[in-house]
Amino acid sequence: MNKIILSAMIILVAFVWQNAFASHASIYEPRVPEENLEEVQEIENPYPATEEQIEAGRKIFFGKGLCVTCHSKDGRGVKIPGHSPRDFTDAKWQEIRTDGELMWVLRNGSPGTGMPVRVGKVITENEGWSVISFIRTFSGK
Ligand code: HEC
Known about the structure:
Layout: H1 2-21, H2 34-41, H3 51-62, H4 67-71, H5 91-96, H6 99-108, H7 125-136
Heme C binds next to helix 4, helix 6 and helix 7.
C-alpha cells in the first residue's frame, strides 16, 4: 500500500517538475540544440525504407520500444500531462524534421519533456532507424 502512495507521489512530482521546465513553445521548433543542429540535420538514414525495414520498425514501435504507450496506435499520441507526444500525422512536422533529428531525439530524449532516451537504452541504433522509417508512414504519403 505504501509503495503505491510513494509511486503516485513520485509520478506527481515528476509531472510538476516537467511542467516547470517545459520550455518548447512550438512543436516545429528544433529539439536539437542550436550548436549541433546543422550537423545533425545532415545525417541520413543509412537504410532505405523498404517494406521489411518499415515492418521491423512497426514491431519496435508496438513492442520493445514502448512507443505505442505514449504515441498511440495511430501515431497521434495519447494525452499525458505536460508536453504532448508528437502528432506523427502532422504533415508539416514530418516535412520540417530530418531523419537525423529524429535519431538525435531517440538517442537523447527530448529534454524537458516526457520523451525518454530510447536508442542505447531499450533499442539499438539499427532498430532506431527502422522505427524512424515506420514513423514516416504516419504522414499518409
Ligand atoms: C513516456 C512517453 C513516451 C514514450 C515511451 C515515447 N515517446 Fe516519443 N515523445 C514523447 C513526448 C512527450 C514527445 C514530445 C516531445 C517534445 O515536444 O519535444 C515525444 C516526441 C517524439 C518524437 C518527435 C521529436 C521531434 O523532433 O519533434 C519522436 C520522433 C518520438 N517521440 C519517437 C518515439 C519513439 C520511436 C519511441 C519508441 C522507441 C518513443 N518516442 C517513445 C513521449 C514518449
